[in-house]
Give the backbone structure.
Amino acid sequence: MVASRLRSLVHWLKNRRRLKRETSPDAFRRATEEMLELIGMARGVWPGDSQFQTRLQRIEREMHQLQELTAQRRFRHLSLQKRLELRDSLQRSRQMLMHSLETVPPPTDRVQ
C-alpha cells in the first residue's frame, strides 16, 4: 500500500515538473519565435490573399504580445491551468499555420 502511494506521488511529481517545463517562459518564447518564422514563410507563399495576410498580422501581433508577457514577472504568477490553456491555443495556431503552408497551390500548372 505504501509503495503504491509512493509510486503515485512520484508519478504526480514527474508529471508536474514536465508541465512546469512545458509552460515555462522559455518554452513560450521558443514557440513564439517559431511561430514568427512560420508567419514569415507564410507571407511569402500567400502574398496575394489579403484576408490571409490580415490574419497573419493579427497572429504576429499576438506573438509579440506573448513575448512581452513572458518577459514580465506576472507571467510566472499565472496559474498552471491558464498557462496550459495558452500553450494549447498556441499549438492549435501553429497547426493551422502549418496546414496553410502545406496547402499552398503550386506556382505553375506545368508538371516539372
Remarks:
- The chain is about 80% helix and 0% strand.
- The chain has one domain: 23-102.
